[in-house]
Specification:
The chain is α+β, with helices and mostly antiparallel strands. Helices cover about 20% and strands about 25% of the residues. It has helices at about 25-35, 65-75, 100-115, 120-125, 130-135, 155-165, 280-285, 305-315; strands at about 5, 15-20, 55, 60-65, 75, 90-95, 150-155, 175-180, 185-195, 215-220, 220-225, 235, 235-240, 245-250, 255-260, 260-270, 275, 285-290, 325.
């Protein structure tokens, strides 16, 4: 395996391996072999943490005020630069997996059932929720690093729209695009494209649908994601109770450890500045407000306060008087 280096569309240094989704141990070995410096990837004294499996049926796309107005005007999503800012000159619209409270709870239940297949009903009833405490990386946060406005769409709606508008009704093709390593972030990218471009993208392997050893698969209308670094800031330690057939989170730790974090991004290939269109009501109903994260990807990104965001949306969608906020992961 060879890691290449380029400057991405946001002017960040990106070390990447094309056509592969590489587990962290292999990524670490490759980076070490090539003499790549990274203060987070090589850490070994990380408190124990869970490695669940998430079944994800929604995608999210964050943007700021200017991007939101463009999406409303175009009635959909496009690459505003037409691929000119991409190192490979591909016109792509990027989404991320949207993992909410329901997915967190389902993954926790699945992890406990697989770890303790013989646990009793009483033990299951006494089990307290713990997985949400480890979901502290930007992949799970209700806050945004990109803007105050988050579109959260059912995956099926996005793929159906893409199929009808870009694939003549045929199913889109999904491929293993690349693994990217940044300073503290590991991104696993999935490429979605039209069957008409099969030859052009044939160098990328097809995304598997039933591989238990894969970072990410697609099956039955859902992405199956197996994160290895869901915390970023490790403030809790996983405690296993084999006698009680239970798990718990011990913490917060006084001096937390900082490690890499991983996530899955989905890149929709767009041609000739085309727009992936949705009904205006569909756009509005899938839109939520996000507070600003402590760190942003583009420092000069302007975030809006809730009242200002609400006022803007009343102008863009006059029929709607409400604005939903991203919910917390903590169970109520």
């Amino acid at each position: 395996m060879i890691m290449q280096t380029q400057t991405n569309s946001r002017n960040y240094t990106e070390h990447f391996m094309e056509g592969q989704h590489v587990w962290l141990n292999d990524l670490r070995s490759t980076a070490e072999r090539q003499g790549l410096e990274n203060q987070y990837l090589y850490k070994e004294d990380i408190p124990d943490y869970p490695r669940p499996e998430f079944c994800v049926s929604h995608l999210k796309h964050d943007t700021e005020r200017r991007g939101l107005c463009g999406i409303r005007k175009d009635r959909g999503f496009k690459d505003p630069r037409g691929g000119s800012s991409d190192p490979c000159h591909l016109s792509l619209v990027w989404w991320s997996l949207a993992v909410g409270p329901e997915e967190i709870q389902a993954a926790e239940t699945r992890l406990l059932e697989e770890t303790y297949p013989d646990r009793m009903e009483e033990q299951a009833a006494e089990q307290e929720s713990f997985l949400w405490k480890f979901a502290s990386s930007p992949a799970f946060k209700r806050r945004s690093r990109l803007g105050s406005y988050r579109f959260r769409f059912p995956l099926e709606e996005v793929l159906t729209a893409y199929s009808e508008q870009f694939c003549s009704g045929a199913p889109p093709i999904m491929r293993v695009f690349k693994t990217s390593l940044y300073k503290q972030e590991v991104q696993y990218s999935v490429l979605v494209h039209s069957p008409a471009n099969q030859r052009f993208f044939s160098r990328f392997p097809l995304l598997p649908d039933d591989d238990p050893d894969a970072v990410c698969t697609y099956r039955d209308g859902r992405f199956i994601w197996r994160p290895e670094a869901m915390c970023k800031t490790h403030s809790y330690e996983l405690i296993r109770g084999p006698d009680e057939n239970q798990m718990d989170a011990r913490g917060p730790i006084r001096h937390p450890e900082f490690y890499v974090w991983d996530h899955v991004a989905v890149a929709l290939h767009m041609e000739n500045r085309k727009v992936l269109r949705f009904d205006p009501d569909q756009l509005r109903e899938n839109l939520r407000f996000c507070w600003r994260d402590n760190r942003t990807i583009i420092p000069q990104t302007r975030f809006d306060h809730f009242c200002r965001a609400h006022s803007l949306l009343r102008r863009l969608w006059p029929r709607y008087s409400w604005l939903e906020k991203e919910p917390p992961l903590r169970p109520t």
